[in-house]
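Q: Fold this one first, please.
A: Sequence and structure below.
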Amino acid sequence: MPIRATKWFVEGALNDDDEVDTKNEEVREFVSNALFDKMETSWDQFLIECLTSLPF
């Protein structure tokens, strides 16, 4: 349950000046949307299925 209760997010990469540039922000937004908004299965359901494969 602690893994499922965690707030999940995608962090954008930083450029050489330790700043987020426009390209990196576009990539972060795309990946975030793909994982959390556009999947047929919800992120929570995906985690449930992944966690069932862990040995106890």
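Q: Good. Now the second chain.
A: Here it is, same layout.
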Amino acid sequence: MDLYETIQDLYAEKERLERVIASLEALLGIGEPVAPKPRGAKRGRKSMSATEREEVSARMKNYWDRRRKDPGKPVT
């Protein structure tokens, strides 16, 4: 038997098994399509506005100023 024929037979068997599995899942009520994720949903960090950046900058400047004054004491 040719290797190409063997591969073709295996693909045919795979398709048959997928159809049988799908029909059994349909009988059990599982395997129903899941709603797709909404498009445009962003992942990762959100961007900061200019005002938020200024506030963070002021907080960090204050933090580092206090840290430089007393390097042995932890700042809360």
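Q: Anything worth noting on the second one?
A: Residues 1-31 form one domain.
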